[in-house]
Design a protein that fits this description.
This protein has 277 residues and is of the alpha/beta class. Helix content is 50%, strand content 13%. It has eleven helices and eight strands. The chain has helices at 2-8, 21-32, 49-56, 81-84, 111-118, 150-161, 174-183, 185-202, 207-227, 232-238, 245-276; strands at 14-17, 40-43, 60-61, 71-74, 101-104, 124-128, 138-144, 164-168. It has an eight-stranded mixed β-sheet, with helices on both faces. Helix 7 crosses helix 11 (245-276) and helix 8 crosses helix 9. Bound molecules: NADP nicotinamide-adenine-dinucleotide phosphate (NAP). Residues 17-23, 43-46, 75-78, 80, 83-84, 105-107, 128-131, 183 line the site of NADP nicotinamide-adenine-dinucleotide phosphate. NADP nicotinamide-adenine-dinucleotide phosphate binds at residues 17-23, 43-46, 75-78, 80, 83-84, 105-107, 128-131, 183.
Amino acid sequence: MVATSLAEAGIDSLVLLGCGKMGRAMLEGWLKGGLPPAQVQVIDPCPSDWLKARVAQGVTLNPAELAPATIAVIAVKPQMMTQAAPRLAVLAGQGPGTRTLFLSIAAGTPIATFEAMFGAGTAIIRAMPNTPAAVGRGIAALIGNDATSEAQMAMAEALLGAVGQTVRLDSEEQMHAVTGLSGSGPAYVFHLIEAMAAAGAAAGLTPDLAMRLARATVAGAGALADASPEPAEQLRIDVTSPAGTTAAGLDVLMPELVPLMTRTVAAAAGRSRELAE
Ligand SMILES: NC(=O)c1ccc[n+]([C@@H]2O[C@H](COP(=O)([O-])OP(=O)(O)OC[C@H]3O[C@@H](n4cnc5c(N)ncnc54)[C@H](OP(=O)(O)O)[C@@H]3O)[C@@H](O)[C@H]2O)c1
C-alpha cells in the first residue's frame, strides 16, 4: 500500500516546485497514495484549475514563506531552473528532524547545478520519470549525490514508486541514455500508434477503425509484455509462424527498426547532453 510506504519512508511534508504535466501526474499519485494535502506546499506562478481544486482540499499554494519540508521536488523546465530553483534555497540545511532532500526531475540539469545553488553538502537526487506516471505506470531512474543517505534514496524511491517503478543508476552519465529511452520513449510509442494507424488506413481500413486497432494493439501488447515472465523476444517468436503473415511483416520491419531506434535514442540522449552544458 502506497500510503504506508510514503509514511514508512519518512515523507511527512513536501514542497513541489512546478506543477505542470509531470508535477501534476506525481502530485495526483501522492495524494491518492495518502500524502496529507495539508503537508504539501506547491510553488507555481500559473496554477491550473486542477491545482486550485487541491488547494480547497488543504494543499498550500505559493506561500509567502516556505515551511520546513522533508523533501523538495523540482519539476520545472530546465530553461526556468535558474529563475525558479533559488526559491528553494531557504530549505537547504533545514527540514523536520533531518535536512531537506532535493529531488529534481528536470531533464539535462546536472546535480552539480543544484550543488552550486544549495551547497555541496546538500542531499540531491536526480531522477528521470516519464509521463505514464499519470496512470501509475511510469518508470523513473534515480541517482543521488554523495551527501544523500540510503534513507533518503529510499524516500525518493517511495515517492516515485507511488506513480510507477523505480531503478537506480550507477553514474549520472547514464541519465542521458535514460532520458533518450524511457524519458522520451512514450512519445516514440505514441508515434508508433500513429504510424500503425496510417499504415492500416493505407491498407484499406477507415482512419477511425485503423486508429482504434492500432491503439488497442500497442496498449494490449505492452500490457502483455509487462505481465509475462517471457522476454519480449520470446513473445515475438511465439506469435510468428514460419512463412506466416506476421513473419512477412517482420521481414520488412526488423532490418530497419533497430538502427532507426538506435539513432532515435542517440539523438535524444545527445540533446540531453547539450542541455547539460
Ligand atoms: N513531460 C515529460 O515527459 C517529462 C519526463 C521526464 C522529465 N520531465 C521533466 O519534468 C520537468 C517538468 O516538465 P513538464 O513536462 O511537467 O513541464 P511543464 O508542463 O511546462 O511544467 C512546468 C511547470 O512549472 C511552472 N513554472 C514555470 N516557472 C516557474 C517558476 N518560476 N516557479 C515555479 N513553477 C514554475 C510552469 O508554469 P507555466 O506553465 O505557467 O510556465 C509549469 O506549470 C522538466 O524539467 C522536464 O525535463 C518531463
